[in-house]
Specification:
Number of domains: 3
CATH class of the largest domain: Mainly Alpha
Shape: globular
Largest sheet: 6 strands, parallel
Helix content: 55-70%
Distance between the termini: 76 Å
């Protein structure tokens, strides 16, 4: 048996390898941890046999996961999504648990189950994977879509339901005749714990964190945080409740203090590492022989819960007003098992509610369903289109509404995303009488904005048909206001395919993905952090007594150096110095076959003598879309190249004559 140090090295090394491989293929790390656990466990390669030590460490992973969920528990968020969370989410968990009782007859020929064991197992199978689903939907830019909001609402209730189930399961392990007494005693204990925590602990927690924060010691802050998380877990364990419940309550307490975000950042490394150990330990529990010996039972436990959850969620989503296509997507996204299902299954094992061999078959089926989740989500759109007869009609109606709004526009700005940045831009465009049309996926936001007179419609800017309907071919510019780089890249790909060389401005949080966005076709990328730093610098310079004219000149020079589209615009100290024909413009020129400039280099064209700046050259490379080339003086132009030029109107006319 390896020593503790050797075991730690094995777990860290295998964890790194698993996450690297799965991240390389764009899959969630949780699948890497589970696969590695199966591989190194005592039932496979047997590299790590000390499963007791791993499980001991992994239990803290669950503690910190529940603490993080407690931090996310926000009454305002729940109130805003109360129909989805408590209506749709609550119905899903309750219906799945209740239907587990008659469904248990399917496996009665293998392992007879009591009704309370069936409910306990139904609670474990009712869970879906928050880690996998949110990661995959975020990668597909679908979190803000209707089915994405349904999914998040249901997952949120499932997270809350785990707290209740962790309390309920020990009571189900009692004699059925003593169940009422056990539940009553548990309820009394929970009430006492909540009273102590929220009526006494809330005040003490705020004051204590304030005192610790005043000392300005990061080390002390972290030690205090660990003490509170583990101390609260120990307190609930003392009352006969679970460690995870105490961690959840600690998170709820801290979420109401001003230190929530700092706590969340500090605890994340502990949570992710220990949670990875938890998933590895789950993988180590699986006996691969069960897949061979009891393959028929594993197959039944894989297909039946997937089908049951899919049907339940799809039907409930329809009852709560979703279209057939949205309901199908919601059901497919949540049909798989989840990480909290493993937590509950471990507790069920500890209470001896089900046979250990059945537990192994359930564990195998849950792991297989999670491994198959990426494929279900990947093909959810195609399946929804195939089996929802009205989905094409609904999408056609939505696209028609977009087209009806865009028909009156020409040379307009197409805004992708109507959040705070999109709305601010729209107001400024309105002041200048510049037409615009915005696409957004939040129906509540759209309803309020339309009632206020804004020109915004429901539409997914990452889809080709919505961009066409929004008048991309007639638009002057596209502005992508998403903070999510992946969503921006999807829109850029579609814009580049439909209208190569289009002026596209992209908002981003920082410049970490600058190269990636520019390579995808962004004409300019506007990082908020850089703009914030420039505004901060301007105020500091003014406070320090630097003249306003010099401050404007300094900030202007900094922007010129950073943003290529602004070069050539700020040539003096004030805008009033420019005459009308010297106003900066951006212009694209496509080199048709036979153009005069084909075969010439950029240096040979001497654009700088005409006051022209070449912003970009795009070329359709073999097997790829239009790609932005490096602007080298010896770059030879080819037929169908697209040049993006900036300069005043007269200079652009001269440059275009040289090119064509």
């Amino acid at each position: 048996m390896p020593s503790v140090l050797q075991l730690t090295l094995i777990l860290l090394g295998s964890g790194v390898a698993g996450v690297l491989i799965f991240r390389y293929f764009g899959l969630p790390p949780i699948l890497g941890y589970l696969s590695i656990g199966i591989l190194i466990g005592p039932n496979a390669l047997a590299v790590a046999n000390d499963s007791a030590t791993v499980k001991y460490l992994a239990e803290f992973g669950v503690v910190f996961l529940m603490f993080s969920i407690g931090l996310e528990f926000n009454l305002h968020k729940l109130k805003a999504m109360r129909t989805i969370v408590f209506g749709l989410g609550g119905s899903q968990v309750i219906m799945t648990m209740l239907l587990a009782v008659p469904a248990s007859f399917l496996i009665s020929s293998f392992y007879p189950l009591s009704w309370h064991a069936s409910i306990a197992l139904g609670g474990a199978l009712a869970m879906s994977s928050t880690a996998i689903v949110t990661k995959l939907l975020a990668d597909r830019a679908e979190l803000e879509m209707e089915h994405g909001r349904n999914v998040i609402g249901i997952l949120l209730f499932q997270d809350l339901a785990v707290v209740f189930l962790l309390i309920l399961l020990p009571s189900l392990g009692k004699n059925p005749h003593d169940l009422f007494e056990a539940l009553s005693l548990t309820a009394i204990k929970l009430t006492i714990a909540l009273v102590l925590i929220f009526f006494i602990g809330q005040t003490l927690m705020s004051r204590w964190f304030k005192l610790v924060a005043r000392l300005r010691s990061q080390e002390l802050f972290m030690l205090n945080l660990l003490l509170i998380v583990l101390g609260m877990s120990a307190l609930t364990a003392y009352f006969g409740l679970s460690l995870a419940l105490g961690a959840f309550l600690a998170g709820m307490l801290i979420s109401e203090t001003p230190y929530r975000h700092q706590v969340e950042d500090d605890i994340k490394p502990f949570r992710d590492v220990l949670l990875g150990l938890f998933f590895i330990s789950i993988g180590m529990l699986l006996d691969l022989q069960v897949l061979v010996v009891q393959w028929h039972l594993v197959l039944l436990l894989l297909i039946a819960p997937l089908a049951l959850k899919f049907i339940v969620i799809t039907v409930l989503a329809r009852l709560y007003g979703s279209s057939p296509g949205v309901a199908i997507r919601t059901g497919l996204c949540l049909a798989q098992a989840g990480e909290f299902g493993f937590v509950l299954l471990t507790q069920i094992d500890g209470l001896d509610l089900i046979d250990p061999l059945l537990s192994q078959a359930v564990l195998a089926a849950m792991l297989l369903s999670m491994l198959g989740a990426p494929f279900l989500i990947q093909f959810s759109e195609r399946l929804a289109m195939r089996f929802a007869s009205t989905e094409w009609l609904l999408q056609s109606l939505a696209i028609t509404r977009v087209a009806a709004q865009s028909m009156r526009n020409d040379q307009h700005v197409l805004i992708c995303g109507f959040g705070r940045s999109g709305q601010s831009l729209a107001r400024l465009l309105d002041q200048e009488k510049i037409p615009y049309l915005a696409l957004d996926l939040d129906p509540d936001r759209i309803a309020e904005a339309v009632s206020a007179g804004d020109r915004v419609v429901y539409g997914d800017a990452s889809r080709e048909n919505y961009l066409v309907a929004a008048g991309l071919v007639r638009a002057k510019a596209v502005v992508i206001t998403f903070a999510d780089t992946i969503a921006s890249l999807k829109v850029l790909h579609q814009v580049e395919k439909l209208r190569p060389g289009m002026t596209v401005l992209v908002r981003t949080t920082d410049d970490a993905d600058l190269g990636k966005l520019q390579a995808a076709g962004a004409t300019e990328v506007i990082p908020e952090l850089i703009e914030g730093s420039l505004m901060l610098a301007s105020h500091v310079l003014l406070i320090m007594g630097v003249p306003m004219r010099k401050v404007v000149r300094t900030i202007t020079a900094a922007r010129e150096a950073r943003y290529s589209l602004l070069r050539g615009y700020f040539r003096g100290s004030t805008d009033e110095d420019f005459s009308e024909n010297e106003a900066w413009r951006l212009h694209t020129v496509t080199l048709m076959p036979g153009a005069l400039s084909i075969g010439k280099t950029l240096a040979e064209l001497h654009f700088e003598l005409d006051g022209i700046t070449v912003q970009a050259v795009r070329r359709k490379l073999m097997g790829a879309d239009y790609t932005k080339l490096d602007l080298k003086p010896d770059l030879h132009l080819q037929a169908n190249d697209i040049l993006v030029l900036s300069g005043n109107s007269e200079a652009l006319e001269i440059a275009e004559a040289k090119l064509i």
